[in-house]
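Why do we care about 3D structure at all? Because function follows from shape, and shape follows, mostly, from sequence. That is the central idea of this module. The next example makes it concrete: a single protein chain, its amino acid sequence, and then its structure expressed as tokens.
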Amino acid sequence: MKKNIFILFLLTISLNFDIHSQQDWDLGIRLGASNYLGDIGGKDKTRRDFILDMKLRQTSLVGGAFLRYKLDKRWSLNAQINYGRIRGDDAFSTNEGRMWRNLRFKNNIIELSGRGEYYFYTDADFGNTGKYNTELKAFFHAGFTGFYHNPKGSLNGSTWTALRPLQTEGVKYSRIGFGIPLGLGLVFTVKRDHRIGLDFSWSTTFTDYLDDISTAYYDPVNMSSNAANLANQSIAPEEQIYNYMPGEKRGDPTHNDTYMFTTLTYSYYLHERNKVFNSKRRQLRARSNRRTGRRVIKSKF
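And the structure:
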């Protein structure tokens, strides 16, 4: 008897917590495009900020999952895991110095991040249907990210070699990186349960080696033959004005690398789980009543 009462007491507390919390959580997935800004690729000028130097031909794919908790009408917290690829090739550039440098890379990034989302615009009846079935929200977001990366290089674009162990610039950098993601997004809530969104995230990192390029050409005497071949693949003609010798400029150490994800998202509110929970609670209550011989009197109103 006491055991059954205790079980019902715990279920009641859990249900009250569940009703309050589950309606505030949504679980989702994302899929979209990834790109990066660093030392490979680029346009005519040596370097330009933000997306002005981005090459669409370097775009790759990213996918992931996230869990979001609504703090109130204005704020949410979002935890996510993403897997995306960034890549670049000097052959895509229209800058002669980069074209003749003739380097390329690819890097798969596994990212864990947390961020806050601030909803600055809300339309509770998007489309003015009068049914309030679709809600639109627009938000800014900012947070902190940690990621694993391992850049690879190639001589011919088909066989890829991990570059970090080769120390192509004589620098030993970490596979673990950190960054600050900033961005904005839109989210449509359809029939209260389904959320469809568009999300843009720009992550400024604390490393300049997402592409394995940062400073100057390293003396090949201090490298293996494989590392020397991957580090310096210049194809400039003799009359060119650029110098691709040890100690000369290979990258730009004054700016760290950044990457960006533009994704479509889908998520589902978790409060529907309460239906299953309620059914289990009713079953346990009925089982308890049968064991104790208690009659259940239903109200007429």
